[in-house]
Write a structure and sequence with these properties.
Length: 442
């Protein structure tokens, strides 16, 4: 595929980010409804978060998908992976007990993880040198559109929402007119997941038509190393190991905060802020709208100005978000400030620079595998953190201030390490970056 067509392929592949974030937030927007329907405890919710696209499910998928993409190609992942995603979503849609719900979250999460390394790698390899940052931002915008649209659906279909009446009628036609209220209300979440199924079906058909990455094809013609060989090379190369440590650190510390926000944010609004499920989804939706708008603006600047500038601004907004929490979230003013500041952080998020640098700083032979390894580390530890957070947070949000201090400490680590280690890759080709870092042998 010619790099002049990078925008078209970026849009097709970016739907994976919509499905990634959408899967996380679809669970979050209806978590209280599932809790009421299945009688779940906070610990049950913690395990849902831990095994979902938010954490361990994606971690397992990423380490598999990354090395498969380096061995069999990026297109190989695009051809089959979203079929797994659709299966996971179908299981959730048909859930009647907790094990089914947990299985659906896990299968969907594994698919998300498999797709992420191949997607970011393909976007970078298909981009012009002076548009690589722009295309990663477009991908990130899709990551913002997913939650924004899913939360909008969640708000409209939620009990009391504008379109709840058709959902209620659908539920009664399927499970009977005398069904329990909680069983009827959870159909709003089932419908939201159905919209993800439709998007996944469209994305699968678009991605199957993409051509293989020219850089992958070129590298394979020179070197047909196996998966084990690439893993050994990744761990034996000092520069690669240092790069993994740098990127994993900045992404992990930020993602430990973001993973909690992604899954629990509407739940936090309802318990700590005392608002309804519909109001919680509205607040989250507006926050994600800010993510999209800010990322759109960044797409015009990221290839022209130093990356470090935007990296710092994003983390300053993230820190301000949690200082608002320490000051108290009583009243809608505090909740709006919390939502908007986190939206600004999302628009300039560490994930943008992790995706960009992660696809730039490794050679083609283990580029996706290295990203899969890091994603495995980050989302795996996020799964553990999700369980720990439920203890810190408490049943009714009584430990939220303590949790806020933990978040601030993590964000400060991401800020400091990122400022010290930020690479200067703007405007350079992937081949040039590889030669500068690894020499001619790669």
């Amino acid at each position: 595929m010619a790099k002049s067509g990078s925008l078209k392929s970026t849009l097709a592949v970016s739907l994976n980010n919509y499905l990634d974030a959408g899967a996380i937030v679809a669970g979050a927007s209806g978590v209280t409804l599932w809790q009421n329907y299945l009688g779940l405890t906070e610990m049950h919710l913690g395990w849902l978060n831990a095994l979902s696209a938010n954490a361990l499910g994606a971690a397992i998928g990423a380490i598999i998908g990354g090395f498969l993409a380096d061995k069999f190609g990026r297109k190989f992942i695009f051809t089959y992976n979203l079929l797994v995603y659709m299966l996971g979503v179908l299981i959730i849609m048909c859930t009647v007990n907790y094990p089914m719900l947990l299985t659906g979250f896990l299968v969907t999460g594994i698919s998300v993880g498999i797709g992420v390394p191949a997607s970011w790698t393909y976007i970078s390899e298909s981009s012009e040198n002076n548009k690589r940052g722009r295309n990663i931002c477009i991908s990130q915008m899709s990551w913002g559109f997913g939650p924004m649209i899913i939360l909008l659906f969640g708000m409209l279909f939620a009990p009391g929402g504008y379109f709840y009446s058709p959902v209620e009628s659908l539920a009664h036609s399927i499970i009977g007119a005398d069904a329990a209220q909680a069983a009827v209300e959870v159909f709003s979440s089932r419908v939201v997941f159905f919209t993800l199924f439709i998007v996944a079906l469209v994305a699968w058909n678009l991605q199957r038509q993409l051509q293989e990455s020219a850089e992958f094809t070129s590298n394979k013609s020179k070197d047909n190393s196996g998966i084990v060989d690439n893993i050994k090379l990744l761990f034996s190369n000092k520069i690669a190991v240092k790069t993994v440590c740098f990127l994993a650190t900045i992404y992990l510390t930020w993602n430990l905060v973001a993973s909690v926000m992604g899954f629990f944010q509407p739940h936090i609004y309802e318990t700590a802020g005392g608002v309804s499920n519909e109001q919680a989804n509205m607040l989250s939706c507006v926050g994600w709208a800010f993510v999209v708008v800010i990322t759109f603006g960044l797409s015009f600047l990221i290839d022209k100005l130093p990356h470090k500038l935007f990296y710092v601004l994003g983390l300053v907004a993230a820190l301000a978000t949690w200082f608002v929490i320490i000051g108290g979230v009583q009243g809608m003013g505090g909740l709006w400030a919390f939502s908007i500041l986190w939206g600004i952080n999302g628009g300039l998020s560490v994930q943008i620079f992790y995706a960009l640098w992660g696809s730039e700083l490794f050679p083609a032979k283990f580029r996706a595998g290295a990203q899969g390894l890091m994603f495995f580390i980050v989302r795996g530890l996020s799964a553990v953190w999700g369980l720990v957070f439920t203890y810190i947070y408490g049943e009714n949000g009584e430990g939220f201030t303590i949790a806020a201090y933990c978040m601030i400490a993590l964000l400060l680590i991401s800020l400091i390490v990122g400022v010290v280690g930020a690479p200067n890759t703007r405007g350079k080709s992937l081949e040039q970056i590889t030669k500068e870092r690894y020499g001619e042998e790669m």
